[in-house]
Amino acid sequence: MSLELFLTVALNGLTVSALYFIVAIGFSLIFGLMRSVNMAHGTLFLVGAYAGVAVFYPLYDDGNAYAWIIALAAGISASAILGVVLQIVFLGWMQGQELRQTLVTIGISIIVADQLLAIFGGLSQQFYAPDILFGSVPVPFVQGGQYSTFRLFQVVVAIGVGFGLWLILQRTKLGIVVRAGVDDRAMLAAQGVNVPLISVVIFAIGAALAGLAGVIGGTAQPFGQEKDIEFLLTSLVVVIVGGMGSLPGTALGALLVGMAEQFGQSLFPAYSVMLTLLIMVAVLAFRPHGLLGRKLS
User: Fold this and answer.
1) Where are the transmembrane segments (predicted)?
2) How far apart are CA 269 and CA 28, in angstroms?
3) C-alpha distance from residue 59 to each of 8, 11, 56, 128 (Å)
4) Range of the domain at 15
5) In whole angstroms, what separates CA 197 from the centre of its chain?
6) Are strands 146-148 and 136-138 parallel, antiparallel or unpaired?
7) What is the spatial distance between Cα 276 and Cα 284, in angstroms, rounded to a whole number?
8) Phi/psi at 256 (nearest 5 deg)?
């Protein structure tokens, strides 16, 4: 492998990892911090993408330069609202019943996927990137000397999301309450904290991040049916490798999975999936709580 090809594949791995991080960190927040099993997380990704498409094309066809920004806002809002409904109507009163939550969210994801198929059809969709992010920029030592501007933007968004969540969890009262709730929810409730409301807020943030990833991912590459399953499984692997509820762990897991996927496809495409699964198996064998996760009490 030449140096140029190596750097190009590494950059592809970094940009894919950025998208995986945005999707998986929402899953990690819900699963790792709230102990809620949400197998509809991929559905939240797909709902965000389709909600964005629903408002994007009418605005884009009218020549509105802000169509992508409105689509982004619509995708985030739609997923956040669906997440709040999921938590309040279905998951909130099933706390601690993991099997029940798993079956319910799988059923919901199937129903929502069928409705999206009926409304939007089975053809793949894709957003057009805004003019400022369209095309490519010079990047030395990669193939062709150019790289997609939007893919680099993905990395900037992922860094922004990670830094924003770190500020919320480490520097705000909400973050203190959430971290305390991970260790002892009963103690938190006894001190007068509205734990169900905190759970709804965290679920809304996690779902909104899935919607953000839906529009970002739907701009970088086409999306359609079954992307929900793909991103759900990816989120599971990333969180298992990195550690549930761990922000740096999710970032590390996304980086390992993204790099393994891209280098696997470049070096031995027929067996690239096995490389990702081998990483997950090795982590489960030697650090079952993830590389940067902690043992659950």
Assistant:
1) 6-31, 43-60, 66-91, 103-128, 148-169, 195-219, 231-256, 268-286
2) 29
3) 35, 32, 5, 12
4) 3-286
5) 23
6) antiparallel
7) 13
8) -65, -45
How far is CA 255 from its chain centroid?
13
- The helix/strand/coil state of 142 is coil
Q: How many domains does the chain have?
A: 1
The CA distances from residue 99 to 19, 96, 177, 259, in Å, are 29, 9, 26, 32
pLDDT at 144: 84
In a domain, residue 181? The reply is yes
pTM over 0.70: yes
CATH number at residue 154: 1.10.3470
Classify each residue of 104-128 as buried b or exposed e, where b means 16 or more C-beta atoms within 10 Å of its C-beta: bbeebbeebbeebeeebeeeebbbe
Q: Is residue 92 situated within a structural domain?
A: yes
Evaluate whether residue 165 is within a structural domain.
Answer: yes
Q: What is the DSSP letter of 297?
A: -
* Residues whose CB is less than 8 angstroms from the CB of residue 197 and which lie 6 or more positions away in sequence, other chains included: none
Residue among 296, 262, 266, 256 nearest 24 (CA): 256
CA 278 to chain centre: 22
295 lies in some domain = no
Where is 164: in which H helix or E strand? Answer: helix 149-171
At 74, phi and psi to the nearest 5? -65, -40
pLDDT in tens, the chain (297 residues): 788 889 999 999 999 999 999 999 888 888 776 778 889 999 999 999 999 999 999 999 988 889 999 999 999 999 999 999 999 999 888 887 889 999 999 999 999 999 999 999 888 889 998 888 888 899 888 888 899 999 999 999 999 999 999 999 888 888 888 777 766 777 777 877 788 888 899 899 999 999 999 999 999 888 888 888 888 898 899 999 988 878 899 999 999 999 999 998 888 887 778 888 888 999 999 888 888 877 655
